[in-house]
Amino acid sequence: MPLDAASVSVINRVVGLIGLVAGLTFILGGGFMIHHNHLDEFLLNPAVAEGQVVENKSKQNYPGTGSRILPFTSYQAIVQFTDQQNQTVTYRDTFGFNPPSFQVGQSVRIFYDPQNPQRAMIDRGLKNYLIPAICLGFGGLLILGALQRLRYRT
Hints:
Elements: H1 5-36, H2 39-44, E1 47-61, E2 72-82, E3 88-92, E4 107-113, E5 116-122, H3 130-151
Antiparallel strand pairs: 1-2, 1-4, 2-3, 4-5
Helix pairs in contact: 1-3
């Protein structure tokens, strides 16, 4: 069923506005989550320390009822480091992996908040920028596609 020019124009406007809102939501929501979890502070202006993995703490993960995923075990690195006040801090990584990401005794670089050293993260190199890159990339592509739709004239 062929559509007339007016219908195509309305569809392009609606899809363009939806894409624009989705792209902005992705970028702004991603930015909020990055800021809320202090990732921006850790990446832009961190206090840095060398830490040592002292344990890989096992964590049992039980997916919800009706899930196709079976229960599994992940391992979170427990790292000790010395902050700027020469206090020993023990940090438990928020991410768990199987197999463990780090070996006991391994040295790792830690980014932390000098006012609250328990707020920390392990430096994972370029992987630190993965979440911001995904938010910016997908949000940017949605916005570009939306602008193209909004510019399109029949």
